[in-house]
Amino acid sequence: MRKIGVAILGLGVVGGGTYEILAKNREKMQDTYGYDIEVIAVMDKNQERLAELSIPKEAFAKSIMEVAMNPDVHIVVETIGGITIAKEFVTACLECGKTVVTANKEMIAKNFIELHNLARQNNAGLYYEASCVGGTPIIRTIVDSMQGNDIESITGIVNGTTNYILSKMSDEGCSYQDALAQAQALGFAEADPTSDVEGFDSMYKLSILTSLSFNGEVAIDNIKCEGISSIQKEDIAYGKELGYTIKLLAIGKKTPKGIDVRVHPTLIKKKNPLAAVDGAFNGVKIVGDAVGEIMLYGKGAGALPTGSAIVSDILYASKFLESDHYYPTLSKAFKNNKFTFTNDYDCSYYIRLLVADKLGVLGQVGKWLSSEGVSVREIRQKDKNAEGLNTILLTTHETTERKLNNAMEKLKDYQDICKVGAVIRVE
Amino acid sequence: MRKIGVAILGLGVVGGGTYEILAKNREKMQDTYGYDIEVIAVMDKNQERLAELSIPKEAFAKSIMEVAMNPDVHIVVETIGGITIAKEFVTACLECGKTVVTANKEMIAKNFIELHNLARQNNAGLYYEASCVGGTPIIRTIVDSMQGNDIESITGIVNGTTNYILSKMSDEGCSYQDALAQAQALGFAEADPTSDVEGFDSMYKLSILTSLSFNGEVAIDNIKCEGISSIQKEDIAYGKELGYTIKLLAIGKKTPKGIDVRVHPTLIKKKNPLAAVDGAFNGVKIVGDAVGEIMLYGKGAGALPTGSAIVSDILYASKFLESDHYYPTLSKAFKNNKFTFTNDYDCSYYIRLLVADKLGVLGQVGKWLSSEGVSVREIRQKDKNAEGLNTILLTTHETTERKLNNAMEKLKDYQDICKVGAVIRVE
Fold first, then answer.
1. Cβ–Cβ under 8 Å, residues B21 and B303
2. CA distance to partner chain A, nearest, from residue B367 (Å)
3. What ipTM was reported for this prediction?
């Protein structure tokens, strides 16, 4: 039986979960796949984790070169996180010809081409299924199951923390701050939640998924990114009233004007399958010209779901240790695809305005938008607030961001429209 | 560049769709995956299909041996359907060492072990992603993405025809016969719809998916199978009223009593993600001990979705033409897993009764069920029908099929309970 030596760098939640799955399933994987997968080296700042996970002491490596130069290590799992040490260690391992499996979306997204090239030069594999949507096989689906398709779009809820917060706000009517605090208390959000709530985590994942789907580089600089921290609870309630649910969507589309990639809070119709993706779950919809619409749904994070994806990468990579790994960035198609990017996409908007309690204000609102070429789909006047202002909710027909921005700038000409409460995209 | 010669047996809807995807994407697949995939042989009863699909005449093979013995053919796509000729042709090709890609669920389900063994003996691959859930990568997910999991259950809507009919009945309140006629008119159901509506198609798929998921033989004889042809439109309406949607589910579960595998119409709660799988779409939920719950959703049939899965198998198989294909049935784990099967599972039931318009009948119903150990969850009395009988709807708490059957047999002791309108499982 082929023996596969594995090293795990970083024994935190995910690294520890991976160790546990590998240890628990070792015999089953031998009997099913014919590989004897053994963790023979680990690294962690905290040596106590060895005892906690019952890892034999001799597996503890003192330096990355001890791992990278070990001829019995075939596959190195990087679960350190961050991008400084992680990238340094991954680079050292790839340079020594070790196949790398990682859950590190930020490192992959920021070094997509560099790391793939390094892997190829050293005949090593680079696998990162666990970087996107936990144990749900989204990368394998794009690379191994949609090869006969021209992928037209990918739209997903790819961050569990923000989806948990938005679901909480929607279910319980609480504020963003309260929902965030609850998410932090339950371990669904980090002490510094910036990367999640400002959409950066979703942006890294979108960069990886669109680069693979569209078969060309979609660097993070090309992605317009907006988080959820300014979402007000009243807009969630009003959205519901209009038949919408709010989700932080990562969207990548091929359009005649170019590639449109963005992350932002979005109102979606309740019948959209993504509207049912609640709490810490993730969901991704891919549209291909042959297969039509497919959707994958599962837990986006956590020790075991992410560990499950890492273990699946280890077994998948094992098949290719003696043949050819696949390097998407090195294909002729990838190199030839020099994309144009566009922010000039058509989309509807939800707008909440606070207006003076005067006759004819509704008319002013209509005039303001139509004079800028923005057409109103629906308009509703709500009760007066504490400051004596009326609330107007409106949704527009599809328009461009440019037209919408022009309209927002002209707002000062209409003195009875006192304040913009919210502007949220509608898909 | 590696040249891969493909033969297509059967140029019907799916075979033709496959040809079109391969022809359209040939250059893109060369540039992305480094394989030049060319269809160099085809077989079909109807030679006119060659002209319709612009296939060069010299590709037309006169006999299966001409294909099987052609040294330039590496992969044979079987899209004939049925099991007689299809199996004969596939056997001939495997015996000559050709890798086979097929969408034929009945052939695979009925010959799962035989065909895998034949493939292994001849060092040929056998791939059938297209046999289940069209272009949605359900088989790849089980085999290549959940290796570190103990799969606990698989539950799915795996037949688009019946899902279309049930969705139609639910949306429009029409009868089974009317919905079937519409499905036939639109090409969603065949002239003889038996295999779909009686659940056989779902049963074949469940046999394949559970054999792979549970890693042992689940032959179709072990699957309890019930179709949708006796579903009444009033039960769909009453189900809605109680908060349920009706779906034909294929269910495979590991239980302490054994493997529980069955296909039957089922009432599911509206919040169940499978309830949102409408029309010709399919959806499959898999629960693994590490990954938790994941769900895949997509079109279950049609020329292009199925063709997409076949093309993905061709490209996937191409990677293994010179190394080792994977034969699930030959693993030690598969051989060791001799399953016990059980029909003794716990489940709730929806029952519609027609009863005499008399005082105390509701009490009789309660007495009847409780005397058999079946506990009622909810009971509702509806208006009188044309025959002067009252309708009683009830749902039970979880009980076993044995207890329920015993209760149904004792019904004759209660003369005021005149007729059983429907008994439908609730998940």
1. no
2. 40
3. 0.93
